[in-house]
Amino acid sequence: MAKKAQNQIIWDVVVIGGGPAGMMAAGTAGAEGKRVLLIEKNATLGKKLLITGGGRCNVTNAETDTRKLLEKFSKAGKFLFSAFSQFSTQDALDFFNSLGMKTKVENELRVFPVSNKAQSVWNVLNDYMREGKVAIKTYTAVENFVMAKDGTIESVRIMGDEIKAKTFILATGGKSHPETGSTGDGFGWLKELGHTVIDTAPSLVPVKLSDPWVKDLSGISLPMVRFTITQNGERLPAGRQVHKGKMLFTHFGISGPAVLNMSGEIRERLEYAPVTLMADLLPALDHKQVDTAMLESFQGEINKKFKNISTELLPDKLMQALGILAGIDSETPCHSVSREARLQLVQLLKALPLHVSGLLGLEKAVITSGGIALEEVDFKTMRSRKVPNLYVTGDILNIARPTGGYSLQLCWTTGFVAGQHASNNTPRI
Which residues pair with 112 in a beta bridge? Predict the structure, then answer.
């Protein structure tokens, strides 16, 4: 379609932002038989989607009890019941499966494509839009909204031209991974339209540590670590301080699901005082069991030097690093390790202090916290309470959530609801 002809159309629905929420919204509106245009400033759609989960794409979480699922969204959960009653996690699974993408469930009910490729998710969404005859305009940055006298949006301005529509869906995302195009454009527009926007900050982000020995362990991962967040030698309030899950050592500190999920709490606390994480590296064993296991390891390799000891408890390189912290010389034969040093090592295995120096920035954040105030959105329809023909979706909402498929499910749910209701509520008021 020629540019001039395309811009002269009054579309039923214009979707701004070609990420997962935008593609779901556009496809859903197209499935309703509406004339839909999706505008994306990048050369291609779903740039961030293709890198999620290291390129594997954690599609959703297999928790089908909506109440249990929404507990993971903290205070925002109470706002989401209506939207999730219209498009649940089971609906998301049925959607992708029905369109030919097989899925599998892994640890903590995380759902992935059987292909282990985010491209499979991208393909489904693109086929969905193609089936709904959605028009797509890439390489196109929206400059601002043009308002009508009745308080509705009349058009969006692009490159000195205007695109008119009956309804608009904003799916521009937050500010995480700005190299993918998520630069927070939508937040500025929302403020101009009279919305309250809570300041954004990196969320679900890796943690930097000041402990110099950590960088030598880069690449080592542990399947289950129990973290306790402490400040000034004390735990945080009950219910907030403990996180469990996989951990990965990096050259700057630590990452992994458990680390990402507690990064928001760490960020809040760092504003007031230093934060130390106490890491239980063997949460399935108590102190006595760990001590017994260490004794058996030493006795089984009694004449070996500590630096050559091998144990099933932890990776050898990590055990050697902890031994040094416990005061055990790497050249010391196992039979010469003192009881005091062994007990100090056991203590480190059960409560290893990790000193937080900060968090990585937006370029490494899975999502950003902050966004449009939830009280200003009708979650039955995802419509703005301030602009009658504007709908909002996905990361532009001020909704905190953990890793594990919850972010993409939020995109599927809010995108579907917005796409459906924007299609069926197009008259101006």
Answer: 104
Burial tier of 347 (Cβ tally within 10 Å: 0-12, 13-18, 19+): middle
Largest CA distance in the chain: 86
Which pLDDT tens digit goes with each residue over 240-281? Answer: 567 888 899 998 999 888 888 888 788 878 877 889 999 999
E strands, 171-268, in order: 197-203, 207-209, 221-231, 234-235, 242-249, 253-255
Which tokens in the block code for residue 122? 């991208």
Average pLDDT in the 135-145 region?
92
Chain centroid to Cα 368, Å, comes to: 8
Three-class SS of residue 235?
A: strand
Cβ within 8 Å of residue 171, ≥6 positions away: 15, 16, 17, 18, 19, 21, 22, 25, 392, 393, 394, 396, 415, 418
CA-to-CA dists, residue 179 to 40, 51, 141, 176, angstroms:
14, 12, 15, 9
Q: Look at 373 and 362; give whichever has higher pLDDT.
A: 373
Query: Which amino acid belongs to residue 214?
Result: V
Give the pLDDT of residue 385.
94
Q: How far is CA 335 from CA 304, 311, 319, 322, 323, in A?
A: 8, 15, 17, 18, 14
Are 87 and 412 in contact by the 8 Å Cβ rule? The answer is yes
Contacts of 88 (CB under 8 A, 6+ apart): 64, 66, 413
Query: First and final CA of the chain: distance in angstroms?
Result: 31
Name the nearest CA neighbour of 298 among 265, 338, 260. Answer: 338
Q: What pLDDT is stored for residue 181 in this prediction? A: 42
Q: Which residues contact 65 (CB under 8 A, 6 or more apart)?
A: none
Nearest alpha carbon to residue 420 among 81, 85, 52? 85
**DSSP3 helix / strand / coil % (the chain, rounded to 5):** 40, 25, 35
Kindly tell me if the per-residue pLDDT of 59 is higher than 90: yes
Q: Tell me the CA distances in angstroms from 222 to 161, 203, 309, 357, one per residue in order.
A: 54, 22, 19, 21
Beta strands (DSSP E) in 306-407 are 352-359, 367-372, 377-378, 383-384, 390-392
Q: Work out the burial of residue 61: count CB atoms within 10 Å of its CB; fewer than 13 is exposed, 13-18 middle, 19 or more buried.
A: buried
Helices (H), ranges, 302-338: 316-325
Using only the alpha carbons of the chain, give its radius of gyration.
25
- Dihedral sign of CA atoms 249, 251, 255, 260 in order: positive
